[in-house]
Amino acid sequence: MFEQFKPTIFADVRESMDVKDYLREFGCEVVEKILAPADYVVAENYAVERKEIHDFFRSVFDGRLFEQAERLAETYESSCLVVEGDFVNAVKHVQTPQAFWGALAKVVAEHSISLVFTPNEAHTAMFLYALAKKLQGEEGRKIVVKHKPKTYTLRQRQLLAVQSLPKVGPERAEMLLKRFGSVRRVFQATKRELLSVKGLGEKTAQTITDFLDTKYPGLEEV
């Protein structure tokens, strides 16, 4: 599908495995690291933050988006925000559209952050591949990952822990924590219990339980 040149993309270890798998399928070299800020680094001084649609809207109205935008702008010369999901349908339900668009205008104007909207993880990966390929050039310019330490709240640490599960993003992590009450209880949930969470289907519940129950490779050798 794509040419032989393989750009390198650094991806946060907590990011969607589906996006990473698509990137590898398209021909990217994906290097997983703990990134802060940003979810992906696609070129020298160019970072990408990815948000699922519902988390994006919440972050606009609770102010988290401005904090994240400021940290991105302080750390990287250029950055991009990818919003993933059915944006057209979601924006119809915004009660204060002027405030919403004003918030986005602030992010773009004050921090020079680009906004890109994609329908799903596959298209997000296509965009990341194309962006990395364009910015790195055929010769494959060196990528430097920068790290800006951040003190996370307990709630943020709990959400990040649950997001380490396969196919669990910010929205699902919050739903799981609200349903089970603690990180420990989420990890102890049976498949039947997981299926009781709204929006969690058979395939996802099975993937999570398989991940939690599969023995660690080489365990017999210990």
What labels describe this entry?
222 residues; alpha/beta; Rossmann fold; DNA polymerase, domain 1; 2 domains; six-stranded mixed beta sheet; 11 helices; globular
Description of the structure:
- By secondary structure, the chain is of the alpha/beta class.
- It folds into 2 domains: 8-136, Rossmann fold (3-Layer(aba) Sandwich), CATH 3.40.50; 154-214, DNA polymerase, domain 1.
- 50% of the residues lie in helices and 15% in strands.
- The protein contains 11 helices and 6 strands.
- The chain has helices spanning 17-26, 53-62, 64-75, 87-91, 97-111, 121-136, 154-163, 170-180, 183-188, 191-195, 202-213, and strands at 8-12, 29-33, 40-43, 46-52, 78-84, 113-118.
- It has a 6-stranded mixed β-sheet with strand order 2-1-3-4-5-6, sandwiched between helices.
- Helix 1 links the parallel strand 1 (8-12) and strand 2 (29-33).
- Helix 1 packs across helix 6 (121-136) and helix 3 (64-75) packs parallel to helix 5.
- It is globular, with a radius of gyration of 18 Å.
- The N and C termini lie far apart (43 Å).
Break the fold down into its secondary structure elements and pairings.
Layout: E1 8-12, H1 17-26, E2 29-33, E3 40-43, E4 46-52, H2 53-62, H3 64-75, E5 78-84, H4 87-91, H5 97-111, E6 113-118, H6 121-136, H7 154-163, H8 170-180, H9 183-188, H10 191-195, H11 202-213
Parallel strand pairs: 1-2, 4-5, 5-6
Antiparallel strand pairs: 1-3, 3-4
Helix pairs in contact: 1-6, 3-5, 7-8
Task: Put the structure in a nutshell.
The protein is built from 11 helices and 6 strands. It has 222 residues and is α/β, with parallel strands linked by helices.
